[in-house]
Design goal:
three-stranded antiparallel β-sheet; mainly alpha; DNA-binding; about 45% helix; transcription regulation; E2F_WHTH_DNA-bd_dom; 16 helices
Length: about 450
DNA sequence: TCATCCCGCCAACCG
DNA sequence: CGGTTGGCGGGATGA
């Protein structure tokens, strides 16, 4: 079953270079989607008509939490200093917009620091404690002192700013919660240092990052260590809240909670009685291996579906930035950089694999349950041969899991590279060369 | 049915 | 003015 793409994946393999080359061309897909949601008839077809069944598209495969885990796995290394958003988006097979989401919350808890446009610096989990400490201090200060928990948003809300939805119109209190830079030093010469940040703060007030911090503050200051998102939203909005505002706020909290969960900073729990789950503060950021990395991207052949083409593909990697097909020109740039990007991904993954510890890599929603990271953690023992074989079987069992040819190839390549490297390392050198027949570094 | 939350439009920002 | 950010909420998916 699920013939369609799985077969594609299986076949896929060789020519890595060709893959990336081909991966770019068709990305432009159709012009911008419609002004209004599709869903309607579209979904009907059951996706590609009759046989819509194949496995399934599952939103879980694309959740922010999972993406965050993948992101962390990809960059949580010492040798990572700079992270490019496009690069990340490409590596993770998601659109840039999603990267902004996780990057914002990661930054708000100190795991990342924005270095420049499109550029972030990886701080790592070590930055979390510092960030949290500072956050708590600030929270307590605010709590005891003057400022309420959050920015003017609250005051505005409290004042009953119902209706509207325009903009919180209430430029009164700009607490400007010390930007989101909360972390260690901020980029030295922060530009607009000289006042004039106020105006633009409106937007920031509702930022995911700030909301994340306020959400976290809730845990840091309150006695209770669990809270439901509804409660959190209420607290963050103030009484005056209005149905719509609440809904929106809760949506964002869901997003935040998901990534914080993936960082193990919080944990979702089901309180026996209450229908809705709540979140418990754990406070120690670590890589959540619960949900492993998923490197699933759509087959290069077609990505077309503008919107959710359920059942036809798993992820839309479409790197078409915003929209307007009119901007194909920049593609060239992407093509050019794709090599680096992939190389980075490759290195990242290799390093992960090389560590031999279960770093949470799981290849897509369809990975064979049994195969899951077997060979990764199982290989604690020095049996070199077994290890090598593990890798073979590993690659064999995982290869088909990729929905993206490029990644599929990539993985195959990792394995090959690893085998080569490993064998050379374990026993003299060249012999293996015959086995695998090709040098390790020849990627594009 | 309702909770969950992905997706991408499009406006604010910024160089 | 074009590219970058990212708020926002429609509506699909899951329980």
């Amino acid at each position: 079953m699920t013939a369609s793409f799985s077969s594609v994946a299986e076949v896929a393999v060789p020519a890595a270079a060709a893959v990336m080359a081909s991966a770019l061309p068709q990305e432009q897909q159709q012009a911008r989607p419609r002004p209004r949601p599709m869903h309607a008839g579209g979904g009907g077809g059951g996706g590609g008509g009759a046989n819509g069944r194949h496995h399934a598209y599952s939103r879980k495969d694309k959740s922010l939490g999972l993406l965050c885990s993948n992101f962390v796995v990809l960059y949580n290394r010492d040798d990572v200093e700079s992270i490019g958003l496009d690069e990340a988006a490409k590596c993770l097979g998601v659109e840039r917009r999603r990267i902004y989401d996780i990057v914002n919350v990661l930054e708000s808890v100190g795991i990342l620091v924005r270095k420049a446009k499109n550029r972030y610096t990886w701080i790592g989990f070590g930055g979390v404690s510092i960030s949290l400490r500072e956050l708590k201090e600030r929270a307590l200060r605010e709590k005891s002192g003057l400022a309420p928990l959050q920015t003017e948003q609250q005051s505005a809300a409290t004042i009953s700013e119902d209706e509207d939805d325009d903009t919180l119109a209430n430029p009164g209190a700009y607490i400007e919660t010390e930007r989101l830079s909360q972390t260690v030093d901020k980029p030295s010469g922060k530009p607009g240092a000289s006042g004039c940040r106020l105006r633009s703060d409106h937007r920031k007030e509702k930022s995911l990052g700030l909301l994340t911090q306020n959400f976290v503050k809730l845990f840091l200051t309150m006695e209770v260590d669990t809270i439901s998102l509804d409660e959190a939203a209420k607290l963050l909005l103030g009484e005056g809240h209005e149905e719509t505002n609440m809904r929106t706020k809760v949506r964002r909290l869901y997003d935040i909670a998901n990534v914080l969960s993936s960082l193990n900073l919080i944990e979702k729990i089901h309180q026996g009685d209450s229908r809705k789950p709540a979140f418990r503060w754990l406070g120690r950021a670590t890589l959540n291996t619960e949900n492993g990395v998923t490197v699933a991207v759509p087959p290069p052949g077609k990505i077309a579906s503008k919107k959710r083409a359920f059942g036809t593909e798993l992820t839309n990697i479409d790197m078409h930035r915003s929209n307007l097909d009119s901007k194909n020109k920049k593609k060239a740039k992407l093509v050019q950089s794709s090599g680096d990007v992939l190389t980075n991904c490759k290195l990242a993954v290799r390093s992960r694999l090389g560590q031999g510890k279960q770093s949470g890599f799981v290849y897509g929603p369809f990975h064979p349950s049994g195969a899951r990271k077997h060979g990764l953690d199982g290989g604690n023992k020095p049996g070199q041969r077994e290890r090598a074989e593990d890798w073979e079987s590993l690659s064999a069992s995982f290869r088909p899991q990729y929905q993206n040819q490029a990644l599929s190839d990539l993985f195959v390549h990792y394995v090959d590279a690893w085998k080569t490297w490993y064998s050379e390392f374990a026993q003299g050198s060249s012999i293996m060369q015959q086995h695998f027949g090709h040098p390790v570094n020849h990627f594009l």
